[in-house]
Structures are given as structure tokens and as C-alpha cells.
């Protein structure tokens, strides 16, 4: 199967990282597509939770926002937002937090707050939302983002949510027991943290992608794991299910009622 | 006990220039009609609380009603930026906007603490991030038993809480169902409250498992405004107008087109205009 | 995911000698059948948490299962004393019982903090009273913004939480309705949990406004025990057996009559005996 | 109407103290009877709240316990117990807290914990339950208790819930803004706190009761307000409604099902 886009490859690779018994806190956008693709393919029992309070939801179309009616209609139950953050996220009930972001650094810290200085920003981004506490309260974190020199940067102007910290040692130094980012899935490859330094290192390269292309789209010298494998291309079934849900989604969100 | 009033009178009675105001609704049940009424009545100097400012605060900020915004995620969900919010923060238009920024966990806990009449909220959060460096309202508190440090933020206790609900009964009890967000907490944490509703019913009838009921004596004013949450949605009444959220990106990108839209659709209209978006009559 | 087990196996798998155990249910849905099973299996050295010990803990204490009781109101509601609790505290029979005493507000907040994975709970309380003089687990914490002092107690994080619920579905999701007390918090705060239910259904069907659902993955074991909350009640299944609560006063007043009752009704019976109190078959 | 018992007089006098727009946190026993009598006579819209989480309940029979199904069946809604104590009681939503107790002192402090020493008690009582926080979080407190030398005592062995403190000055010294006990309704008379000293002082004496009888049943020298009135005897309607609900209650609680 070669007829797929880098974004499709990214979503499919991210979906593959999820297991049937995961309890997943889903960010909007690419994470939501990956989580629902997993649910509709190899992980039908995966538990998806959105910060709007919907527990164990099974949307038929991808939500445009974190609180679409579709999420509530198809959930096992819906709780208030304070309860979601207190009992479910902080309560330690979530195995995987799935995040995206505007900028990332080599230790998988994320910035979604500002470009430039905080008080006089060049670009004001939306802010952290649930991410700061998702990043430390979930068992582990998956991140999915398209790579570019502007998004994969050597130094973040602002740390909105912590990955492995500015030096890779912050989580351990602070006594945080959760794992932090264990996987970063891009449109080019998959990174995992180096067991020692925690720097995100390429472990798998998507079909047709070169190391040069990865470096061109990364703002720091890319490190590779000792063993780097080739990401299997999307299967026909993966692509079909993904395109189906995206077509349903486009149709559902297109028209004003 | 809650009083039934017109939306005009409810806003006139409850919201004053300079008040702290929380208009809540987490994607679902955002009180747009009430926000438009505040704009029409020309309120100034408001401190606005809201987890996700959404288009409703883009409109209030762009029309110059707000001096300060307390928030945790300021985007157009699934679409992109809130251009009026960005223009205020980046360029000071129509005037400089002070911001106090939190995470969702902080604000959700702060509303919960407000409803519980506590002076502050504590939670496991803000670890390894830069927000505490720019927000002096993020502190730490130490567990007196374990010595562990937790994040602390002040409770949210607004002058006025504004929400949109599904129904009120004739006694003024209010029903929410579906994604209920922080709306119950917003009403309970506020000194005064305005609730707009889709309709008034004799009896709430069979209710969903997560229904939330606010007794009449917790609410100041109720205004019946069918469609009053448009372009957000009211579960069982009408769907989210995703197309409008997408269209807003173009409308709000430019100051002129924003002002023209506000004139035509807010300043020259009244709450009854929302009825076109409500549930079609049987 | 929750596993369906016999009550015998659930107690054998989840509760060990010396564990901290919370059996909750606020008048409604008290897990009597599970308590009896713990007595039959002869657990010793338990630290028992419960806001209102009720007859269930009178029985466990009288049978010598508990070394310590953490509670906030220890009476037979509407009737009088819990004689076995009093005999243990006043006379050390069957052995000395250590007690840690709180108010309802403290325990409710402590369960809430446990479910929220916080090390302690804070609240406005314990002002001008003597309990803090005799309970070192009552401390004060200072608001970092206002300087106000609040009461603080450790979060409750039991080894095992035990509740009775109305129904489970086949996936092991659990439904509570009516007065739900602190049961959801008890399960979420506990390392392991046992839920007894009246029945297993294909689908929960229409639910009341305050229904509480515990997802299967928050529960360790589910045992189907119709009538398992008797003599407390299960809304929609059977009523509170007030006459038994009144009768218990006589049974428990005397050590001999207590032991005889326990032998006949607990030690020589099994969970199936509760079915006689459950909803009559159609 | 002279055919009534002292307990009936107590319940009726307590009921009369309640108003239609009160939001009342109801203790079990005598407070519950008084609150429901008020609801069934002059205060049909009174809001009754029980600590089990039942908001705005309208029971047809008096509950034996604080969490009877009748309370839930007839409530506007029922919330969890943590929410009850956080949002509703501590939230400052309750105008009147209605308490009883085993022992009371002249400043309306209550003991329901122990007689004798705490560690080796002569009598172990049930404990505080909701009372310690009801006493300080409600707008004001009404107390109803039958008088006897054993229950109205000069010194409490244990303060379970604070009235006006050991000296009458504690509430002000602690900066507590709620009023504390404003009325103590017994089977003999009605006490209110002296505006200056906060000592509970008799303001109204029930029909047929003498000052001597009040003193015999009070463990401290009883003080009287400057103006002491006679409590109006129960009306026929008050007695009828009270006896009706008690008959219904007895019937409902009598039989095992």
C-alpha cells in the first residue's frame, strides 16, 4: 500500500501504539483521530476519555471540539469537569494521555502558550488547557505532531507542559512517578526517549522517509536509537477505516443546521 | 427563589460595570444570548472568567467590554485562533487586555472550591511548567501529614455567574443534562446568577443519569431564550453549529468585518433572534 | 476490568488480615452480605473505615474482626446505641478496639480526597470543638492567599473498598441510584474493590437524574447477591427493614444473644440467605 | 387545647420557629418531626435538606434514619454526601441547622460523644456526625431537646459541636460569621441567647410549666429574658397534623417487609 499521505501514516502509526486495555485521555485533533482509529481497528475495547467529562465514549464521527454532543451521546456516562480532573485524571485512572502541541523540544516538552515573550508575545497560542496536568498525572504520554523546523525546536520559548524537563532529569528530581512521553509519533517517524538521557530518539522511520528529511524538519541534531526499524506501511484496512471516519466527520461538520 | 425576567432585565439587574463575571458552558450550553445582551447594554471594565473563552468572549473582548480575562484555553476549538483575543493581547485593540492564565485543572478546581466556599483550591499540578513564573496566583501548599507540596490557586467567586440550561420548571428549578462542565459550580460559586433556558416546563419528566438540578433558591434570575446557546448546542434541542465556528475565523480575523458582523447580528438584534436556532416547533 | 466472582471468592481474593477496609453505604445500600462473608472467613486485625458504623460494623466488631475503627457517627439510627461497639470501647470485649473519630464533613471530604488522589482533605470545620484534642489526625492548613486556617485530615485510601450497588451490566459496569453517599469515592479511593449487586442486566435502561456509574475498569470484583444490602435497602428492590434495626437493639445488648444470633444467621448461613430479602421474582 | 404532651408542645414550638423561605438542614429525631410539621402547616415551601444528600425533600412519613428511601423518593434531587458537605453545607446555602443532642450547657454547646473521659468513657455516645460543621456553617442554629438534669448540665465533659463556646465569646474571637444557636426549644420552654453574654435565657414558657420546674430540670441557674411570654398552646390543627404524621410513621416503620 503506497497511496497514503504523511498525515495518514502519522495517524495510523499513532493508533497502532494503543492497546485494547488502555484508558486514554484524548486531546482534540490528531490524537482524537488516532484513538478512534485504534478503537475501530485493533483495539475495540479501548476506553476513551475526553476532558469534557465523557467517560468511555465511542463517537461515530470525530468531534470538532472536546465537548461535541456525539461524545456524550455515545459515552458510558458523563461527569462534571471538576470531577473529571479530580477523580479521573488526578485520581490516576488514566494509562495514556495523548497530546499534540504547537512546538516541542528534544525532551518532549510542549509549548502551546506563546511564541516570543509572555508579556509581549509575537504569537499568542491558545494555552495549556488540560495538558499541564495530563502530562504528569497519566501513566505515560504519547504525542503526535507533524514535523517542521518551526514546530520541532531547539529551545522552547515557554514550557506549557513538561515532557522530560529542560535537562531530562526533572521528572526524577521532582519525584514524579509517571513515565512522561514514551512515544512521539510524527508524519516522518517515531521517537522514543533514550533510556538514559531521556532525549527523544528515532526508533522507526516511515516508508519513503530519509534521515536527511527528518533532520531538515527537526531543529536539533536528531539522535537515533541503536536499532532503527522501518514503520510498516498502512494496511488497506487501516486506510479504509481512517478515511471512512474522516469522510463521515467532514459530512457531519460541514453544514450549519 | 429565582425570578423569571426578560434577558434584558436580568442582565440590567445582575451585571454592573467592573463586575467579575463567569459565563460558563464547556462546548455545550454556552450562554451566547446572555453574552450578546451584555454587549448591547455596553458593560465596561468586566473581569471575565471562563475556561475556554470560545467565540463568546472573542465577541465581548472585541467589543471592549473586558479589562481582564482569566482563562485556561483560548482558541476556536478545532478551527484555530480567537482573533479578537489575540488582537487584544498582541496589539492592545480595542484596548489592552490583562490576562491571568491557568490550566483547566486549576480552573476546574478553583470553581469547585468557590462552590464549596473555600478560599483556595489545591491539586497535583503545575509541575515543571512555566505558567507559575508568569502568574503570581499560582502558589504551593504543603500537606500537614506527608509534607508533600501541592499546587494552590485562589477559589473563583464571581460577582455574577451566567449559564444556559435546558429547562426550568415553574418553581424556577433548573435542569442541565449532557456535558455539564463547571456550570453548577459557576452558579453556586457566584454571588448572583443568570440562567437562560430553552423552555419552561411543568415537570422535568424522566432524566438522564448525569442530570444536574439547581434548586430555585440558588439562582437569581431566569430568562427564557430558546436557541440561546447558539452556535454552541443544547443536547436534545439543537446541534453545535460547527459551520459557524469555522466561518467565525474569517469574520473575526479583520476588525472591520468583526464590527460589521457585531452591528448587524448583535447590536441591532435582540434575544428573540436566537429562536431561529432553537428546536423547531412541533 | 471487573471480574464476576462468587462473594466467597471475591472476599478471599481481595481482603487480607490486617487490611484497611471501607464498607460504605449511607443508610441505603449497606453491604451486609459482604460483611457477613468477612466474618465467616474469620478476617482479623482489620482497620475498618465507615462514616456510620451501623449494624454491619457492630457485627464485625462483636465478632472480633476489627482492631481499629475510623468513624463519624456510631449509633443505630433512630433506635439508639450500637451495643457491640460500646462494649468494645467501654469494656474491651471481645478485645480492645482502637478508635479514630471524625465528623461527617471530615470523612466525606477525606473520601473525596482519596478518590482525587490527594494526600489530605481541607474544609471549614472542627471549630470550637474537642475532637482535635483527642485525634492527632486533625490538623490545620493555611490558605497561601488569604492566611485563613482550615481543618485538614488525611485522605482515606483503603486497601479494599466494599459497596453494594443496584445492578451491573455484562461488561461489569456498575450502577448506583438514589442516596449514593460516599460509595463512588470509596471505590475510587481504594486499591481493590468488591461490589455486590442485586442483579446483572443487559442494559441499564432509563436512569434517574442522580445515577452514578462506575466503569468496569474501576472495580476489582463483582458478586451477584440479591438482597445483599438487607436490613438496609436497595432503592426499587426492597425497603429498609426498620423492624430489624429496632430488633437489633435487643439482640446486640447481650453478648450471649448476639453470639447466638451470629451463629445462626451468619456463621451457619451463606450469601444465598440474603435472597429471601431481595425483590420478589415476577 | 389542653390535651397534649410536653413532647408535642416541644415539637410544635420548634415547628413554629421555622419560616416558609428557610433552607433547613435537618437532624434526625425531634428536629425532623418539627421541620416536617412546619412544612405540613404554616411553611409549605420550606426547603428541607438531610445530610444523606436529599435536597428539598417532602417525606410523607418521618424517616427513621437520615437516609430513608422516602427522603430520596420525595426530593427535588439527591447529591452525593461529599457534595452535600462541600457545596451545600460549607457552601453557605443553609439558613437554619436544626440539631438535637445528649447534653447541652448554658452556652448551647452540645455533647453527643462521651460521658466520662474520652479514653475510658462511662458512656460512649454516637459521636458528632454532621453536627460539628452544621454548628458553624449554617446561618443560625435551632436546637430542640427535652430538659432533664442529666441533659442540661453545668459543664460538658466533651464539646461535640460549638454553640456560643465555653465563655460565650468564642465565635466572635474565632471570626465565625454565622450566628450559632439562636433558639433552644425544650419540652418546658424556649431559650434564646442573651444579646450580650450569649447565655441561653428563657424567653417563653410552655402552658402549665412553672419556673421551678424549669430550674429542677436545668443543671445551672436559669436566666430569664427581661420579657418572658407564655408559649401559645398547640392549636387543634397543629396537634392533628403532628399526630397524623406520627401515626403514618409508626405504621410505616413498624413491620418488617
From TrEMBL, chains A, D:
Q: Which organism is it from?
A: Alsobacter soli
Q: Which domain of life is it from?
A: Bacteria
UniProt GO molecular function: CoA-transferase activity
Q: Which Pfam families match?
A: CoA_trans
Report the protein name in the record. Answer: 3-oxoadipate--succinyl-CoA transferase subunit B
Which keywords label this protein? Transferase
Entry-linked InterPro entries: CoA_trans_fam_I (IPR004165), NagB/RpiA_transferase-like (IPR037171)
Instruction: Enumerate the Gene3D superfamilies for this protein.
Output: Glutaconate Coenzyme A-transferase
Automatic annotation (TrEMBL), chains B, C:
Fetch the Gene3D superfamilies from UniProt. 3.30.30.40, Glutaconate Coenzyme A-transferase
| Keywords noted in UniProt | Transferase
Listed GO molecular functions?
A: CoA-transferase activity
Q: Which InterPro entries match?
A: CoA_trans_fam_I (IPR004165), NagB/RpiA_transferase-like (IPR037171)
Protein name per UniProt: 3-oxoadipate--succinyl-CoA transferase subunit A
Amino acid at each position: 500500500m503506497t497511496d497514503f499521505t504523511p498525515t495518514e501514516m502519522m495517524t495510523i502509526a499513532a493508533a497502532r501504539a494503543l492497546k485494547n486495555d488502555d484508558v486514554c485521555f484524548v486531546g482534540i485533533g490528531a490524537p482524537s483521530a488516532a484513538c478512534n482509529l485504534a478503537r475501530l481497528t485493533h483495539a475495540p475495547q479501548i476506553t476513551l476519555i475526553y476532558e469534557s467529562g465523557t467517560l468511555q465514549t465511542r463517537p461515530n464521527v470525530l468531534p470538532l471540539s472536546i465537548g461535541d454532543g456525539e461524545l456524550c451521546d455515545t459515552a458510558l456516562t458523563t461527569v462534571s469537569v471538576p470531577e473529571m480532573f479530580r477523580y479521573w485524571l488526578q485520581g490516576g485512572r488514566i494509562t495514556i494521555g495523548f497530546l499534540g502541541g504547537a512546538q516541542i523540544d528534544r525532551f518532549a516538552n510542549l509549548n502551546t502558550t506563546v511564541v516570543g515573550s509572555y508579556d509581549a508575545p509575537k504569537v499568542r497560542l491558545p494555552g495549556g488547557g488540560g495538558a499541564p496536568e495530563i502530562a504528569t498525572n497519566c501513566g505515560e504520554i504519547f504525542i503526535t505532531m507533524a514535523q517542521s523546523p518551526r514546530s520541532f525546536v531547539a529551545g522552547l520559548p515557554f514550557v506549557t507542559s513538561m515532557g522530560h524537563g529542560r535537562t531530562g532529569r526533572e521528572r526524577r528530581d521532582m519525584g514524579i512517578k509517571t513515565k512522561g512521553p514514551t512515544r512521539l509519533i510524527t508524519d516522518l517517524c517515531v521517537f522514543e526517549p533514550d533510556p538514559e538521557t531521556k532525549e527523544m530518539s528515532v526508533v522507526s522511520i516511515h516508508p519513503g522517509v530519509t534521515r536527511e528529511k527528518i533532520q531538515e524538519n527537526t531543529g536539533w541534531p536528531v539522535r537515533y536509537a541503536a536499532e532503527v526499524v522501518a514503520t510498516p506501511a498502512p494496511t488497506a484496512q487501516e486506510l479504509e477505516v481512517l478515511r471512512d471516519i474522516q469522510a463521515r466527520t467532514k459530512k457531519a461538520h460541514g453544514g450549519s443546521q | 427563589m429565582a425570578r423569571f425576567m426578560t434577558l434584558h432585565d436580568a442582565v440590567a439587574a445582575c451585571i454592573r460595570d467592573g463586575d467579575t463575571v463567569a459565563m460558563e458552558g464547556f462546548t455545550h450550553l454556552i450562554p451566547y444570548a446572555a453574552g450578546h445582551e451584555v454587549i448591547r447594554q455596553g458593560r465596561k471594565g468586566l473581569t471575565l472568567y471562563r475556561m475556554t473563552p470560545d467565540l463568546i468572549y472573542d465577541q465581548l473582548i472585541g467589543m471592549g467590554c473586558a479589562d481582564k480575562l482569566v482563562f485556561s484555553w483560548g482558541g476556536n476549538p478545532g478551527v484555530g485562533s480567537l482573533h479578537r483575543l489575540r488582537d487584544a493581547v498582541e496589539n492592545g485593540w480595542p484596548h489592552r487586555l490583562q490576562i491571568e492564565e491557568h490550566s483547566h485543572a486549576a480552573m476546574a478546581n478553583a470553581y469547585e472550591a468557590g462552590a464549596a466556599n473555600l478560599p483556595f483550591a489545591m491539586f497535583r499540578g503545575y509541575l515543571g511548567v512555566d505558567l507559575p513564573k508568569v502568574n503570581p496566583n499560582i502558589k504551593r501548599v504543603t500537606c500537614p501529614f506527608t509534607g508533600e507540596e501541592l499546587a494552590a490557586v485562589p477559589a473563583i467567586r464571581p460577582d455574577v455567574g451566567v449559564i444556559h440550561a435546558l429547562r426550568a420548571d415553574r418553581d424556577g428549578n433548573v435542569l442541565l443534562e449532557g456535558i455539564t462542565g463547571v456550570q453548577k459550580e459557576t452558579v453556586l460559586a457566584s454571588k448572583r446568577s443568570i440562567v437562560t433556558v430553552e423552555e419552561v416546563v411543568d415537570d422535568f419528566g424522566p432524566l438522564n443519569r448525569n442530570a444536574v438540578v439547581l434548586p430555585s433558591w440558588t439562582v437569581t434570575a431566569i430568562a427564557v431564550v430558546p436557541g440561546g446557546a447558539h452556535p454552541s448546542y443544547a443536547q436534545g434541542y439543537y446541534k453545535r453549529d460547527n459551520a459557524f465556528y469555522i466561518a467565525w475565523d474569517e469574520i473575526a480575523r479583520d476588525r472591520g468585518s468583526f464590527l460589521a458582523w457585531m452591528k448587524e447580528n448583535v447590536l441591532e438584534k435582540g434575544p428573540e433572534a436566537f429562536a431561529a436556532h432553537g428546536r423547531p416547533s412541533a
